[in-house]
Hints:
Belongs to the calycin superfamily. Lipocalin family. Its main location: secreted. The protein is an alpha+beta fold and 179 residues long. The chain contains three helices and ten strands. It has a ten-stranded antiparallel beta sheet with strand order 1-3-4-5-6-7-8-9-2-10. A hairpin with a 2-residue loop joins strand 8 (118-127) and strand 9. The radius of gyration is 16 Å and the shape is globular. The structure holds 2-acetamido-2-deoxy-beta-D-glucopyranose. The site of 2-acetamido-2-deoxy-beta-D-glucopyranose (NAG) has 5 residues, from loops. 2-acetamido-2-deoxy-beta-D-glucopyranose (NAG) binds at residues 32, 34, 65-67.
Amino acid sequence: xxxxxxxxxxxxxxxxxxxxxxxxxxxxxxxxxxxxxxxxxxxxxxxxxxxxxxxxxxxxxxxxxxxxxxxxxxxxxxxxxxxxxxxxxxxxxxxxxxxxxxxxxxxxxxxxxxxxxxxxxxxxxxxxxxxxxxxxxxxxxxxxxxxxxxxxxxxxxxxxxxxxxxxxxxxxxxxxxxx
Length: 179
Ligand SMILES: *[C@@H]1O[C@H](CO)[C@@H](O)[C@H](O)[C@H]1NC(C)=O
């Protein structure tokens, strides 16, 4: 029931955005995310979400960036087996802010982006009256420069997480045989 309401809210926001006149879109801010991506690292203030087989231990493979939404194709492991997962996120009126439904409701922000190299998101998950904070680092390749990983670590530490709250995805997590 609650999920239904959230979905309606999200659809509403997507519609509102749809009829709004686009303005002030500088070229350098218009970073199209479409294409192949890999999850490099995840961090959370609730490790149960991102430990092995955690609901947010998702390996990103591909993004399609449309004007009002982005689609993500992920794989996730459950009982040792890889499953495909396709998710849609709706852009809101706030710059770099997105909404999606998955394991509750999520609001996330793309905080760092270099479209040919990496992007980072900060995500708030709302599930059963609990709010969880998460960070993710994605790379165009399976590895990113050490400096980018350091920046990601700094982002996490600046938000009261510890180094042990960061996990780096392994080949096992990435379910590469499915990709
Ligand atoms: C991003 O690029 C893809 C293909 O290159 C295109 O189909 C899509 O419309 C673009 N998205 C935006 C938001 O410009």
